[in-house]
Amino acid sequence: MKKIALISHGCAKNLVDSELILGILTQNGYEITLDENETDIVIVNTCSFICDAERESISTILELVEQGKKVIVAGCLAQKHSKELKKEIPEIVGMVGATDFNKIVDVIKNIDKGYEVEVSEKPNYIYPEIVERQQITMGASSYIKIADGCHYRCGYCVIPYLRGDYHSRRMEDIISEAKKLVKKGVTEIILIAQDTTGYGIDLYKKPMLVELLKELNKIEDLGWIRFMYAYPTTLNDELINAIATLDKVVKYIDIPLQHSHPEMLKLMNRPSFDYRPMIENLRKQIPDVSIRTTFIVGYPGETEEYFEHLVQFVKDMKFDRVGVFTYSREKGTPSYNMKNRVPAKIAKERYRKLMEIQQDISLERNKSFVGKTIPCIIEAYSDDGEIVARSEFDAPEVDGIVSIKTDKIVTPGDIEQVKIIGATEYDLVGEI
To answer: How many CA atoms lie within 13 A of 383 on its CB side?
Structure first.
């Protein structure tokens, strides 16, 4: 049986899909590797969310083709550009779409018979429950995908057209997966979906994230539960209360707001209301909560007045963590043909201005931790012997870390009480 390599690009949701692909290959008797030098067949699970992500995926494909590898392109790039890819990079030997990775074995079997394209015209993501994920990263934390696809049609977002409508997994399957991960030594479970707060709306006819959190909270030996990507209109009082009262649910909320001006939000097909009372309510109901958000600058129609509204909003709200993106014009999205486009130079200037403002806020916020003792999850040892950890107020990969100095022997996955002794714009320094 052939050995197959896999390279994964993109977000945590894509990482789970890559692990499912590896699970399918393992079930079918293939030997798998993450080192493309060990085999001539390489699957590249691609990202196509924005132009930069596409460029990164294409760069990897071209590099592998130049090395003479048999490249199978999987995921969002194949879903979005299958015809163009086939034409521009004819050396690709196979392709599977964003919701078609269950067909990967057929593509591999036919790899020497001719070009195989398995890309559904209408994507429909159904989680393959019979497949056991082969985890690429197995450490203190692990992601669980609770749903995929999306019912919303935000003006800038290509995801619904690549992944289809929203599909939730059954609660018992999610709980079962979480228990297996905890048995393997995972301390923190991170729930992901295009919109986690909409979980269950299709399956149970009402949002069921609160019930899911309550069930996960009962799992023995599980340390932390975190969920990403809340939607503004579904972050209700019941959910806020669950975050505040369930002891394993971290006091951290990731709620991508995208903008603050009501007219901009309308142009983006986003909920258009004043977000300030919602943020104030979150801080009132959950003391010490850490709020992460993201904003898009340079979206078509963003005037200087609208941008300054956003600047003031960021200054006033003092978010704990902020990600800023310049608008990426994606074919197939509602905004693609919009007029009043913002020049790239102005969009970049707005990006820099907003990031500089947030840097100051982030530094001030981090300095407030100095002298305090907070729980941190041990992640790894760095090359220079320092311990890399993370507080409950920071999600992996997107937020900050805590560098710890100690003589104590600690193990990845342990949750330790750490005294904070230093702070930078994004990271903390602590000691045990």
So the answer is: 0
Q: Counting beta carbons within 10 angstroms of the beta carbon of residue 363, is it exposed (0 to 12), middle (13 to 18) or buried (19 or more)?
A: middle
N-terminal to C-terminal alpha carbon distance within the chain? 49
- Beta strands per DSSP E along 219-272: 224-227, 252-254
Strands (E) across 163-319 are located at: 167-168, 188-192, 224-227, 252-254, 290-297
Sequence-separated (6 or more) residues with CB below 8 Å from residue 415:
187, 223, 224, 375, 376, 377, 378
Contact 378, 413 (CB under 8 A): yes
List the structure tokens of 28.
Answer: 């079918």
Domains and CATH numbers, the chain: 3-118 (3.40.50.12160), 141-367 (3.80.30.20), 373-431 (2.40.50.140)
In angstroms, rounded to a whole number, what is the distance separating the alpha carbons of residues 397 and 313? 26
Rg of the chain over Cα atoms, rounded to whole angstroms, equals 22
List own/partner pairs for 338-346 with CB under 8 A and 24 or more apart: 338/155, 338/267, 338/300, 338/301, 339/300, 339/301, 340/300, 340/301, 341/300, 342/298, 342/299, 342/300, 342/302, 344/298, 346/298
Contacts of 250 (CB under 8 A, 6+ apart): 224, 225, 226, 392, 393
Per-residue pLDDT 10s for the chain (432 aa) are 689 999 999 888 999 999 999 999 999 999 999 888 889 999 999 988 777 778 899 999 999 999 999 999 999 989 988 888 888 998 899 999 999 988 999 999 888 777 677 888 899 999 999 999 988 876 799 999 999 999 999 999 988 999 999 999 999 999 999 999 999 999 999 999 999 999 999 999 999 999 999 999 999 999 999 999 999 999 999 999 999 999 999 999 999 999 999 999 999 999 999 999 999 999 999 989 999 999 999 999 999 999 999 999 999 999 999 999 999 998 889 999 999 999 999 999 999 999 999 999 999 999 999 999 999 999 988 777 789 999 999 999 899 999 998 888 888 899 999 999 999 999 999 998
Q: Using CA of residue 428, residue 294, residue 397, residue 166, what is the dihedral sign?
A: positive
pTM, entire model: 0.93
Residue that the structure tokens 């003792």 belong to: 373
Residue 127's alpha-carbon distances to 17, 30, 146, 167, 285, in angstroms, are 9, 21, 9, 8, 35
Residue 389 DSSP one-character state = E
